[in-house]
Amino acid sequence: MTLKVYLSGEIHTDWRQEIMTGAKGLDETFSAPVTDHAASDDCGVAILGAEADKFWHDRKGAMVNAIRTRKGIADADVVVVRFGEKYRQWNAAFDAGYAAALGKSVIVLHPEEHDHALKEVDAAALAVAREPQQVVEILRYVLTGALPG
User: Fold this and answer.
1) DSSP label at residue 149
2) Could you point out which of 8, 10, 28, 42 has its C-alpha 20 to 30 Å from the C-alpha of 78?
3) What is the rounded CA–CA span in Å between residue 51 and residue 68?
4) H or E element: which one contains 117?
5) pLDDT tens, N- to C-terminus, the chain (149 residues)
6) Within 10 Å of residue 128's Cβ, how many Cβ atoms?
7) How far apart are CA 105 and CA 18, in angstroms?
8) How far apart are CA 50 and CA 45, in angstroms?
């Protein structure tokens, strides 16, 4: 069995790399949004033209980024959504809901202090992990049936 895993959410830490490194040797392919914050913010105006108003600047970027995000989620078998500690990732919550609506297996990754705020997102997920290594162990178990050891 091969799993296609989409890594959505927070872009300010190396959690994606931790998961990909930990999953080496497993039969998986990973995809993700653009994680270069400046490129992600400015892609719309860089491609489609400048906007005087910051709202429209950001909206153009969000719409262009959504093309990649929708494709990544649609193609995935498993969607991992990370909520970081510093910023509110409304887009991550949307990604989790979109993935759940498509019937994707969702793993949510966030610290315990976000439990209440994310209770509806957590309820739609099949697992709530606290650390990237727990995501790796879930993926390993799904692919091999092996428990952490």
Assistant:
1) -
2) 42
3) 22
4) none
5) 899 999 999 998 999 999 999 999 999 999 999 999 999 999 999 999 999 999 999 999 999 999 999 999 999 999 999 999 877 788 999 999 999 999 999 999 999 999 999 999 999 999 999 999 999 999 999 999 999 98
6) 18
7) 20
8) 5
Q: Which one-letter DSSP state was computed for residue 53?
A: S
Q: Tell me, what amino acid is at 96?
A: A
Q: What pTM, to 2 d.p., does this model score?
A: 0.95
Q: Find the Cα–Cα–Cα–Cα dihedral 58, 45, 9, 114, rounded to 10°.
A: -20
Please enumerate in sequence order all residues whose Cβ is within 8 A of that of 133, keeping only pairs 6 or more positions apart, or say none: 18, 22
Give the CATH fold of the 3-33+74-144 domain: Rossmann fold (3.40.50)
What are the structural domain ranges in the chain?
A: 3-33+74-144
